[in-house]
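Format notes (please read before filing issues)

Several people have asked whether sequences and structure tokens are stored in separate files. They are not. Every record keeps both together, in the order shown below: the sequence lines, then the token lines. Line labels are part of the format and must not be stripped during preprocessing.
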Amino acid sequence: MDEAIVLQELGAAKDGTIAPTLLRNILQTLQPDFFTETVLDQLVSSLGGEKDGKVNISGLFDAMACGPPKKLTSLQIAIFSSAPYVQEFMQPLIDKFPGSFFIEQSCGSTSAHLCKGANAACLFVNDDCSREVLEVFKAKGICLVLLRCAGFDRVDLAAAEKLGIKVVRVPAYSPHAVAEQAVSLVMTLNRRLHISLNRVRSGNYELSGLVGFDMMGKTVGVLGTGRIGQIAAKIFKGFGCRIICYDPYQNDAMKQLGGEYMTLDEVYSHADVITLHLPLLPTTRYMINNA
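Then the structure lines:
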């Protein structure tokens, strides 16, 4: 669906403007969990205002191409870190944008040149998008970096802006999948499933050392109460756990779940299990032990 159709579907005028209230209603209907009032306020503010009180949403599509607006079909995407499973689910993208291609290597200073022939680069969470890489991208004609992840800590945003390369990312990275995986790891450690699997493979059915504990009634400390932390808390709540938590920015959703906000030291001293859902920052590095 191109820009003109999207604008028409959103009920915007031909000049791309739309009433902020209508925009809010549409976005909250499409994705109510993500488009909170805070996110919407930031979005509307970033779009700027018009004399008649409307905002221009045509700017939302500027990141789809460099320079003057182009049709999406003009994109030719170099997809880095494209393991076989990635190629399987991203083949429709290749079909939709002829000239796009897969690159199995991860992106870095020695492999960035492989993007030759593309005008956009699609990167994953561990790909390097430093200034050095961006300079190679610029020389090869890349004007758009597409991150198929939520994190952008490996992207030199200042360098990208200076070089005129736009960067876009996904707004949320499958929060349910991440939270469920975290809870699965807790249960694996608790019930020693990784040890029992190896024993069974070798024909050893000894139960010694495999006894865990009931999650019912245990206290789980959730460090980081964003979307993933909230979902993890809901799952632990289903086990009958007490939820205590820490986050510099408390939210009402967590409190409604029954979560009790505490200081870090209080969480450390009261929790039977601790689950971390935090970005890696200088303030969070080594927050568990000193190594």
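For reference, the curators noted about this record: Residues 175-190 form the longest helix (16 residues). Residues 92 and 98 are 10 Å apart (CA to CA).
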